[in-house]
Amino acid sequence: EKEMMKPTMGMPRQVPTSTIFSVILEAGPSARHLAQTEQLEATLKNDFSMYATPQENSQREIALGRLSAVVNDWVRQVTSNKGYATTLAEQAGAKVLTFGSFRLGVHSGSSDIDAVVVVPNYVSATDFFNELYSLLQGRSDVEELATVTEAFVPIMTMKLYGISIDLLFAYVDKDKIPDDLDLLDEGILRGIPEKCVLSLNGYRGTEILLHHIPKIQNFRTTLRAIKLWAKNRGVYSNVMGYLGGVSWALLVARICLYYPNSAPSFLLNRFFFFFKQWYSSKTIGAIALSPVNVEGTLGLGLKCWTPSKADVMPIITPSYPPQNSTYNVSESTFAIIRSEFERGEEICISIDKGEKSWKDLFEPTDFFHKFRIYIQINILSTNIDDHRKWKPFIESKVRRLVKKLEMGVGGVRYAHPFPDSFDTPTTNPKYPFCTSFFIAIMLHTRPPKGGIVDVSNVVPEWVQLVKTWEGRNKETMEIDLRSVMGKDLPDVVFEETTGKKPVRRKKRKRTKAAEGASTATTTGVKRKREAVIGGAGPVEKKPRLVEENEENGMYIANNNNNNNNNVGMVYNKGVAGGVHPGAGRGAGKMGGIPGFAEEKIPGLEKREIGGVEGMPGLEGGAGGAGGAGGIWGQVKEEKVTVEG
Predict the structure, then answer these.
(1) Is 101 labeled as catalytic in the residue annotation?
(2) Is 348 left (phi over 0), alpha (psi -120 to 50) or beta?
(3) Residue 227 annotated as catalytic
């Protein structure tokens, strides 16, 4: 497998060649893999409800039937209103075609339905977003109706008969839509705008993907598992810079083509192994189901994906014109996805050995436990209708803020967005509807010059961008950004992820032994080895002089005004590290102690002095003491300023 991947991995950013489409293993599944697959399917069904019940499937069919009837009535009405003959109005027709998880057969009871409305050429997007919207708005079985016309692919969302539906629009260059219309024919794209092409390609790509799959049931089980894993691990969201449903489906399909007769348990194992290897290369080739044809068969000259240095992890859609389904992925989200591939491979190996279960693979991310600093984006509205417009618009722009934080702020190592939102308690009674997104901030180990990480030039610029949206009602829509420490996150983020809120540990008092350096010696090689941190003690029972928790380290300054749009981050200087000698032969251990908090600075909620470690000591001779640990960091009187 590794040898097979080498040729393509060595080609920088090139269109895939036929060398990556060979079958790796044709053999069928072993008894062990079949037994593991039964366990996998039971876990997906019983522990995570990843299969829709017959009743839930029936409800979806009813909802789609009602939607199709409404759409056809609407097209007849538009045809008559525009002065066309009655006969054409009766024959015009329209299609509601599904794609995504529902069409692939991997939906659960809570999944939404992705669909596209296909209409004749005289029906416009304006008709769709105005007149069809009005018809649906008047129905008692329609709830949460909203439109996002500014999206890359404009969309209408709703709940119909209790089923969430995301509806796209496309017209084709025909005056009627026959029942036998072949939308896989490339000629159907002739003479229509780009947004209609993109809307149609959701359906076209899904159908072509299904045609590639050797054993559909194995594909479905594997994809269900990957979707659950990606959602629980926080890497499922195209709009946030991770991978969406299309991309994950294409990766699973690629593995199914490499191992056409293998069981889902083995396919999962190979999925993590293969893509960990593939995406560990310095030069990453694109993933596609078949050789990419940027010319098409009819020479339509439509805009296609072409290899670029901007591509981080290109995954190419199978229908013409080919597109990169992962164009939103950044270097930081790519690193997060890679680390999850590594974790997935390790757990699958343990499952194969009988050391872990499938539930371990699907364990929720500890995103809200492992970071110290977060930016909370509160989307505020006075009424639910405006909130349904305001929230998806802000969601589509969070990725820009992440990029600005990473590119425009010194001291920020990376910004890690959480893909899901939370309904959080509002702090302003004027805005009863509040939805929050969170971005974790990871800072570099060493502070920038001056000890300040200042985002006051980035955040206001982004806030201004979203506030000038033409669809925003200034009286009913507001946005609020604030920094928040991990211990102060709202309870709902823990309730809806791990289910456990971290317990804040009390800081221990510093001991006198920590105030200075000590030396530990040993006479004779038979004596017990010891190491100290400001005092003696066995290595196995190293004392912790200051509790290591989220209160030691770096903070974002919180300017508590009504909007909190100006946010500044600040490092404080570390205290001197103590020495940490080692006894016996071997290098001295790391010295130093964590920092502590005492003073306050105006404009900051707290002042935290970051702790630092001593450098390793020199290697001692046989029977001699290890060298003393070096000292890194010193106390300085320095004025700290926070912009904003």
Answers:
(1) yes
(2) alpha
(3) yes
